[in-house]
Specification:
The chain is of the alpha/beta class and 267 residues long. Strand 1 and strand 2 form a beta hairpin. It has one domain: 2-enoyl-CoA Hydratase, Chain A, domain 1. It contains eleven helices and eleven strands. The relative contact order is 0.15.
Length: 267
């Protein structure tokens, strides 16, 4: 796989390990530009899967892993469209992001998210596509979507329900509160805790360990323990699109966009 550097992310391959690094200020908000580059990446990732043993997804920004969807772009685009066109546009975006995330989720490579700081909304959902989450002790996880009148739309709840018990799933979804890395590790969301600033180094060591095992056996084991929740993912898109037309969503997005807080995504 050839290395590439995009406006929002970059990828490099070394020693059988791919590293996808997010680097879009302020906190790796996922909008149309990021999605287009992620689509380019997964095409290359599929081609490289026969040679690479592991994929690490990380962020080079101090603010964190990702604050989630680009809500400013979503609000601006939706205001310019009638309701039917707005719903169609959102559905198209969600279907594209689901295709990308599903390909990462089901890749025969072992995938590792190395997270720190803000890991919210769509960024949290990206981390959940990975087989393992390694978290800096300062990382925080949150689904703030109910504040906007929405549910997570990038596949987070079906993946979280697949991996964890209903107690933590309902807590994260229905309260909108964030949890720290220590609690996330205690409930099984995070596989390893790392010291501050050390998540990527730990992820690289873990990826090197993964590379010692037979590729076909590793891929078979992954398929067995990590089925893709296809029906729930499809249902999530439908629910999101239906909620998106409600007045509460426009109001919530407007409050977010008009906020003078430097970090309006923080709980």
């Amino acid at each position: 796989m050839k290395d590439f550097n995009g406006q929002t992310l970059s990828c490099r391959s070394q020693g059988g390990i791919l590293e996808l690094t997010l680097h879009r200020p302020a906190c790796n908000e996922i909008g149309s530009a990021t999605l287009a580059e992620m689509e380019r990446f997964v095409d290359a990732m599929d081609d490289a899967a026969g040679e690479a043993s592991a994929l690490i997804i990380c962020s080079s920004l101090k603010t964190g892993f990702s604050a989630g969807a680009d809500l400013r772009e979503l609000y601006t685009r939706s205001r310019e469209m009638p309701v039917e066109a707005r719903t169609a546009s959102v559905r198209d975006f969600l279907q594209r992001i689901h295709r990308v995330f599903n390909r990462i989720d089901s890749s025969p490579m072992t995938t590792v998210a190395a997270v720190h700081g803000v890991t919210f909304g769509g960024g949290f959902e990206l981390a959940l596509t990975c087989d393992l989450i390694i978290a800096d002790r300062m990382a925080r996880f949150c689904f703030p979507e109910l504040r906007l009148g929405l549910i997570p739309g990038f596949g987070g709840i079906p993946r979280l329900r697949r991996d964890l018990g209903n107690g933590i799933v309902r807590d994260l979804l229905l309260t909108g509160r964030s949890i720290n890395a220590v609690r996330a590790h205690a409930v099984g969301l995070v596989s390893q805790l790392a010291g501050e600033g050390e998540a990527l180094n730990v992820a690289r060591s873990t990826a090197a360990q993964i590379g010692k095992f037979d590729r076909a056996t590793r891929a078979t084991a992954k398929r067995f323990i990590k089925p893709l929740p296809v029906e729930q993912l499809t249902e999530e898109i439908e629910i999101f699109c239906r909620l998106f037309t409600e007045p509460a969503v426009e109001s919530g997005l407007r409050r977010f966009v008009e906020s003078t807080d430097a970090h309006p995504y923080l709980p």
